[in-house]
Amino acid sequence: RNLLLMRHATSSSAVSAKPELSIVVSESCQKRLREICVDGLFLRVTVEGGGCSGFQYKFDLDKKLNEDDRQFGEGQAKVVVDTISLEYCSGATIDYHSELIRAGFRMVANPLAEQGCSCGSSFAIKL
Is the pTM of this model over 0.90? Predict the structure, then answer.
């Protein structure tokens, strides 16, 4: 599977984020985003406390950029992650997976996650 590494584009704000923090956006994710993101919509990925393993990924379509957001991708295939969430998923791959009974975005190969749950959206952080 071909993957494209997307480095974050720096915004005009003076947020002190580590420049090496990045995510990988799979081609299937980019393809799906080009299909569904119109009128300035993008995929927002956040990491929240909760879920089966302590943390969970949340995927939403959004239009509003915040000062601490980092953008990955280009055109209609944009993924936005806030700097705090990025610290929990840097190096991971955002994928779009489709199978007979479900389809959706998912985070795979997170090098910072120690374990996950069978739900696929919950994980624990490596200490």
Answer: no
